Amino acid sequence: MNVSNSKQTQRRNALYVYNNTRETFVATEATLADSYLRRLIGLLGKTRRWARLGAGLWIKPSRGVHTIGMLFPIDLIFLGKENVVVGVEEHLRPFRISKVSFKATSVLELPPHTLYRSKTQVGDRLEIAPLHREAPSAAAPAKFASQANRDGEKRSLTGR
Predict the structure, then answer these.
(1) Per-domain residue ranges for the chain?
(2) What is the pLDDT of residues 38-49, one digit of tens each?
(3) Fold of 3-132
(4) Backbone φ, ψ for residue 31 (5° rounding)
(5) Which of these ranges, 16-25, 97-106, 127-136, 148-157, has the smallest mean pLDDT?
(6) Deepest in the core among 68, 74, 80, 115, taking most CB within 10 A?
């Protein structure tokens, strides 16, 4: 697999993280680490370029992480059931071990200062969903057209 295909796959598998409580985006291009190998590797080998605004790594399942071998600090959000924030840790420096949260079922690793920017706090509810959704099928416009005809609405594109 070449590099461009790998980046396209990452974009296709990208997630967004939205704080419903504060009405702010936490991450707009997060990825999911849900296999043993992906969780083990995590952000190892990533450079500071990874730590751009909007990036994130959702480690599931996890109750704590380490930054051994990392080259930059990260912010952490510990998530419990239904993606409720049960803990946060700001600016965890390289070669450190985070706190362990027994209430957590997953951990979000984020660029430094993300917690400050998004104002995320314990008790907030996060929405995590795929960034790219399936395009509507070709049948969808026909369905809406038939519904409009049934309702007797025949409007032009100008709305008249």
Answers:
(1) 3-132
(2) 887 777 777 777
(3) Jelly Rolls (2.60.120)
(4) -120, 160
(5) 148-157
(6) 74
Contact 72, 51 (CB under 8 A): yes
How far is residue 140's CA from residue 145's CA, in Å, rounded to a whole number?
A: 9
Q: What is the DSSP string of 113-155?
A: THHHHHT--TT-BEEEEESSPPPPPTHHHHHHHHHHHHTT---
Does the pLDDT value for residue 133 go beyond 90? no
Chain centroid to Cα 81, Å, comes to 16
Which residues are CB-contacts of 156 (< 8 A; sequence separation ≥ 6)? Answer: none
Beta-carbon contacts of 13 under 8 Å, excluding residues fewer than 6 positions away, are 31, 32, 130
Quick one: DSSP state of residue 72? S
- Out of 20-24, 29-33, 84-88, 130-134, which region has the weakest mean confidence (pLDDT)? 130-134
How would you list the strands of the sheet with 74-79, edge to edge? Answer: 85-92, 74-79, 106-110, 55-59, 24-33, 15-19, 126-130
